[in-house]
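Protein folding task:
====================
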Amino acid sequence: MHTFKVTATCLLTLGLSISGCNSQNNNADNENKTSSAPEEWVSNPVDYVNPFIGTEGVYNHRQAANVVPGAVVPHGMFNFGPEHAYTKDLLKESERMTKQVLGEKGRIPVGPGGYNYGASRIKGFSFTRLSGTGCLGASGDIPVLPFTSAIKHSPDTDMLDAYYSAGFTHQNETATPGYYQVKMDNGVDVELSATTRTGIARFTFDNPEQAKLLFRSSYSQLGSGDAYTKIDQEKGEITGHVTSGNFCGYLGEFNRRDYYTLHFVAKLDVPISGTGGWQDDTVTKNSDSAKGGMGYGEKGIPKLGKGSGAWVDLDLSQQKTVTMTVGISYVSLANARENLAKEQTETLVNSSQTKEKSFEEVRKEAYQTWNKTLEKVKVVSTNKDKLTTFYTALFHSQFHPNVFSDVNGEYLGFDQKVHKINNKQKAQYANFSGWDVYRSQLQLVTLLDATRGSDIAQSLYNQAQQYNGVWDRWTHNSGATGVMSGDPSTIAIANFAAFGATGFDIKGAYQSLLKAANEPTSFDLSDEGCPVFCRGQHPSLDQWQSINYISDQSNSWEGASETLEQASADFALSQLASKLGDNASSQALLTRSGYWKNLFNPQATKEAGYIQGRNKDGTWKADFDANSEHLFVEGSPAQYLWMIPFDGNGLKEMVGGDKVMANRLDNHFHKPDGSWVLFRDSATYSDVSNQPSIASPWMYLFTGQAYKTQDTVRATIDLLWNNTTKGIPGQDDLGQMSSWYVFSALGIYPLLPGRADMVLASPIFSKTKIGNLTINAPNTSSENRYITSLKVNNIDSSKSWIDDSYISAPVKLDFELSSVPNTQWGAKTADRPLSFSTDNSAVGDK
């Protein structure tokens, strides 16, 4: 088993040349230069995962992928790992952070998820974390700090957690799937592992004299409304809860509220020799309880000086290693206890008796669980760097959504009431980053496990039923946050159905979504929470129905962005309606999906047409700048132009035909000198590290120049992704960006929302298998990136896409690749991907 420690970083310059990354690139040719021995699938892919990939920002610490090394199993509720503390050195990278932390005494985490490779101190190890979020405030609940000094003052008054934290170096840190270890500078060696709903820690103290554990119960990532900690010294047990929320709360008032409570029970295997607690600035020695939240501050950032927690002194006279087992629940303390009892005990062979699992047993089970998940995508390769980058991306894509129900089936619903899953559902899931994951992550999850996909779909439907029929676009635990734009839930449900998830109430979900698409709610007609947290599932749906676009005077976060998002949602719902036999609704929704054309202004600039915001009276929004980053959500008009994946042919006709569209794409991906521009340059160019641009490389297919898609996808893979701490471009967004890499590396991508057709590029591995799909590319290499020919089930094909036959039956793709583009492959109109236009017909030959 490989354990990953320090990894050399890879620096991307503005011109996207790479220094320090030659290992992967130089070895890229080795895919077809292995020994003559028969090809074999890579065994134990879990050993190729490097959890530290993406933990460091390319330019500074605020630009990391925000992934979280730690102990978690696939889609686990419990994610056990370090919460880093700011230092003055790290704050120097950001004037804004320096002002908020030192000047305004705000309690701000180093990064979403709590972990950042640039940090050097740890303030605790929390029980829950989300991976890859852009916003701060996602969980980070109940950090526990092993501590070896006297309690001198309240941790709530400790600026930068300078006293109540411990230094560490990456040389003393390791991580593998399901396991995390660090030897801190205070002499405590920390080891963590987890099951779905429980965690286990092993703390070994070099200096046991003042050994303590601090339970910082109120210290959720961006504060808490309330917290409680209780110590039972006789039982060696600590219990409590935290009530929190505030995801992205610093961006607007709506989310500065409580919407979930996490209950916990922690059990120690050594005696507790002393106790104490604190609230705000008051420390109470010998206390066995503490109560009080941090609050969320006036502007969504909690202030220094508020909170509560407790500590236990440890009697290490008999042993230096303390084992702590933890159970959590979002329902009750009783359920947390039951989760712990069920998941960390095992029945003895030939006996009805049970025993507690050891740390090594839990760690081994977590390792095996990850291996089984990763083995669902089989690869032939001998290139360690490529395998590590690939399987780490697959690993990151399988963190979310998270199991949210307890072992007894209970969970807290969006109505803040306790519900129980029915016998058709194995688990309720939470943490749905809709605007991100509808694009490819949920499709990948479903391809690997259709039952899990069905359960996630049912979970979204359950939440909507508990929330007056509203499908929230970004759910965090038991709360609707409204973050981002569009109606991603509709696309997600259509995707689940298309990709083989059939074990949920698909008809009920469809009827709910259809109603939401046609009947404006009070949320749709309200600007509450806008712009970032607009509460409506279909913001300003009345405008969509009357003027057939979302205007600049609407209840949305940028009407132009919302128009494109709603067009994709209507298209996806039209495909689901057709699947269920509701042809009338399918046709009506397909017509509505063409409303994006109402915002195409052929004279937006003197040079070219763009999607442009429009006023409610029909006039164009003034002061248009195609390269502005402030007219669309997280992107520019130049980037959003290509976000019409279901009607590429319609877009091509709008911009002026094959040659014009291909030329505009060329200028979008390349500077005048021909160099690639794929990442965080001028908004004139693409940014394939963020959602609005991730489909853009595939849009060449609609021009007939499929070889340019092959080249651009490979360039993105080669230049932006690698086996280093800077090896993920931008925030990973709960696995969405990693799922993009996985599909792209396989040479396939689910471009059309609500359909399981795959568009094609060139695979980077000689042989792969996912689900029913086997992909062969025996001569692939860094140079051999162009498709010369393709056979689908042994029949020649010149199409740049495949239909969804692979969902229900075996399909084999045999690629012949070359270093020379075949400009004719995929060039004919009949060979291009399906394109659905407002005349209700599909362009392309099925």
In short: The radius of gyration is 26 Å.
